[in-house]
Amino acid sequence: MKIEDTFLADKAASAVKKIEMGRGKRLKKKVVTPPISAHAIKDLKSSDGKYYCGFAMREVMPDDVLAKDYWIAGHGPGRKIEGVHDPVTARAMWIGVKDEGGIILCSVDCIGLTNVEVTNVRNRLAGFCKSAKCKSVNISCTHSHAGFDTVGYWGKLPRTGKDPDYMEKLLSTIAEICREAYEKRTAGDLFVGSIHAPDGQLDRREPIVLHDTLTRLRFVPDDGSKETWFLNYAAHPNTLGGPNRLVSADYPYYLRETIYKSKDVNELFSVGAIGAVDPGPFSKDLPERTRMQGEYLGKKALEIDNDEKLDAEIVEIRQPFYIPADNAVLAFLAHLKVMSSRIFPSDEGALGLCMKTEMTYIRLGRQSILILPGENFPETVYGGYSDAVHSATGKPADINPKPLIDIAGDENLLVFGVTNDMTGYVVPPNDFILHPTQPYLSSAKDRFDRKHYHETNSLGINTQAKIAETFAGIIERINRLK
């Protein structure tokens, strides 16, 4: 960066921080941050030993994809879509028990949705949820870096990259398939199985922590109709890379196609703890790497042979909470309505601002699932923090919150990331480094000269602590049921 550019960037970072600190002070005078109470635990028990599941899907492609300016999300702003590699889709699965209701899990081929958009879908489904006894609607985004901008900051800033017509099409379609999945429900058994898939991951940032398990929830209907598979794996769908200008679901497209060649099933996919985790280095040719990543995971899914039948019981609790919003750049973009957000005044953090988000804990039989906003680094879930000698800050691992599997007391905890909110990266405090004069605007380098990009797309250093604290409260309450 040239000296004059450095000077301007310093000034811009300082100005944005001052603007957002002022916003925090003004909000505090006008707005009372609503208190958050503990949500009720739903415990749904089967009366006949069966799960009732249904599936629905739609393509979510605009008719004018090449006649209008649409922006690819995930690699940088202002990348106009120039064609279609494969259509992006939205998929929904109803999982319920007889008479008592159930839950909906969605999988959408997009970079993410904020909690504002997720709430929009839930509001459209309010009447349905009441009549169907639907306890929660959960929208996982596959985090494709080749899909439409559904968050806002990949267009031509400072204008939003979201197209209002496309967003309406997407949200209304998600609501439609949720209803349809419920209507198509049928009785059967639900199984969970897993397999190690180490070649599908590449950790780009120390400490090297990889959770290489591909997990499959498999519903087998009693009537012999199609099975439904919900797959979970931790690797960024970013293989088509920055040069790509074609709409795509990225490697999840090839994952599905590989399965379909051998099995006529319904398929959904969610990412796990994907912070700094790329797909495997199968090829330097990016389209080829994308194909190989998807085919590798699809073949691995077909190889799973350790299915265990799950008892037909659903435990679910959705818990909203606040995270200090210290990222002045993201706060400023939200202020400009580039993206949707729910910002409130706060007594914590550098700006006096916080953002309302949520997490959901689900247990299907013995299998626990934690639905999380944003992109958690694997060590925040599974442990393996850097010690003081190797950490970016020189601080010890014990300043970090307890890893989530330790809080749960469950090494088989399944994590669905980028679900129900898009809140950025969740970085351990002892590895959290900001640029000294351009915080959240430019990447920093630590004492080992390692680049720290991910902090620029995080809410701040306090994010992991708030997630761990909220989850500990959920587990304490869940344990009372035992």
Task: Give a brief outline of the structure.
With 482 residues, this protein is an alpha+beta fold. The protein contains ten helices and 23 strands. Strands 2, 4, 5, 6, 7, 9, 10, 12 and 14 form a nine-stranded mixed β-sheet that branches.
Taking the sheet with the most strands, its summary is: 9 strands, mixed
CA gyration radius, whole angstroms: 22 Å
Number of helices: 10
Distance between the amino and carboxyl termini: 58 Å
Mean of residue pLDDT values = 96
- Report the helical percentage: 25-40%
Instruction: Please report the total strand number as a whole number.
Output: 23
* Overall body shape: globular
Structural class: alpha+beta
Strand composition percent: 25-35%
Low-confidence stretches: none
Describe the 3D structure.
With 482 residues, the protein is an alpha+beta fold. The chain has ten helices and 23 strands. The protein has helices at residues 3-30, 115-124, 126-132, 164-183, 251-262, 286-303, 328-335, 378-382, 404-408, 463-479, and strands spanning 42-45, 51-59, 83-84, 89-97, 101-108, 134-141, 186-196, 202-203, 213-221, 228-233, 246-247, 266-271, 277-278, 308-309, 313-324, 343-345, 353-364, 367-371, 375-376, 414-416, 425-426, 444-445, 451-452. A hairpin with a 2-residue loop joins strand 17 (353-364) and strand 18 (367-371). Helix 1 packs across helix 7 (328-335), helix 2 packs across helix 4 and helix 5 (251-262) packs across helix 6 (286-303). It is globular, with a radius of gyration of 22 Å. The mean pLDDT is 96.
